Amino acid sequence: MATSAEAVSFNPDNTAVSGTSSNPTLTWGAAWGECASATLHGTTGLDSDRITDFRLEFEEPCSFPGIGPMTPDCSGTATLIADPDADDTGKLEPNEDFRCDFSMGICVITVGGPQPTQPKNTVLDEANDVLSIDWELQGRRTGSVLCGPEFGTVRITADFAMTPANLTIDP
Q: Which of 57, 93, 128, 160 has CA atoms 20 to 30 A from the CA of 22?
């Protein structure tokens, strides 16, 4: 395990990385939605502890049971920062240009960056090449109150099968 005095980095260096997730979920209050799939794309740096240009895209069809179809529209990037104190974990943070709108006809739930997120919200399973994300962001609902509170926590969870198959976080 890396100690806080040790530097960690994503490997391989200067490499495009991507992942695909089946059935990623979005939770808003007591309600949850699901999309058919999601993709994540970014590039590792040179001896860097972060991937600064991750792009997240949800693929339709998406639905929010009890409300109806959901149309996701995400733009901008997020940064994944390796945690020097815990093997294979990191913290995904939305960059200033990051924004996701989840439209459901009667309402829209929006999250944007920058904002702080909980630590250790990602885990890289190096043996199986899976990046698991459990991301909590503050969001806002516009439109009908049938979609829940005006302000609250949006939780996005997904397991991304990553390529290339040799992505690691190393001290």
A: 93
- 47 CB contacts (<8 Å, ≥6 apart)? 7, 9, 13
Start-to-end C-alpha separation, the chain: 8
Integer Cα distance of 129 and 19 in angstroms: 9
Contacts of 87 (CB under 8 A, 6+ apart): 1, 2, 169
Cα 118 to Cα 8: distance, rounded to the nearest angstrom: 19
Rounded Cα distance, 146 and 83, in Å: 39
Listed by start position, the domains of the chain span 9-165
Q: Which residues contact 159 (CB under 8 A, 6 or more apart)?
A: 21, 130, 131, 132, 133
Whether the Cβ atoms of residue 138 and residue 115 lie closer than 8 Å to each other: yes
How do residues 104-132 score in pLDDT, each as one tens digit? 999 999 999 999 999 999 999 999 999 99
